[in-house]
Design brief:
The protein has one domain (25-95): SH3 Domains (SH3 type barrels, Roll). It has 96 residues and is an alpha+beta fold. The longest helix is centred in the first third of the chain and has 14 residues, at 6-19. It is 15% helix and 36% strand. The strands form 2 sheets. Strands 6-5-4-1-7 form a 5-stranded antiparallel beta sheet, with no helix packed on it. It is built from 1 helix and 7 strands. The radius of gyration is 18 Å and the shape is globular.
Length: 96
């Protein structure tokens, strides 16, 4: 009977991890490609060209990109570079 007390706590922890999105597939690495010479790819706070720029990525850099919370049919992709997480133009991201 003692083990049965731990089952509800374990189930609660499992359900909490699903509800917070803690269980998800690792994002695929992408390389920044196709930028004009000398340009950087902006990382924005929202998937909107007028949103605040929260970071920049240089050409040929690797990013963790197109995470599973990226809506399909958008021109932006949710990316992570170091500690920076935001939205970048999908057209400049090529799967590695």
């Amino acid at each position: 009977m003692r083990a049965s007390r731990h089952v509800p706590a374990a189930l609660a922890g499992l359900l909490l991890s699903f509800s917070t999105g803690a269980v998800r597939a690792d994002p695929v690495p992408y390389r920044v490609d196709g930028l004009p010479r000398g340009e950087t790819l902006s990382i924005r706070a929202e998937p909107d060209p007028s949103a605040e720029v929260v970071g920049e990525i240089r050409a040929r850099a690797l990013v963790a990109g197109c995470t599973n919370d990226t809506p399909s049919r958008t021109t932006c992709c949710r990316v992570k570079v170091g500690r920076t997480v935001g939205w970048a133009r999908r057209r400049y991201l090529a799967p590695e």
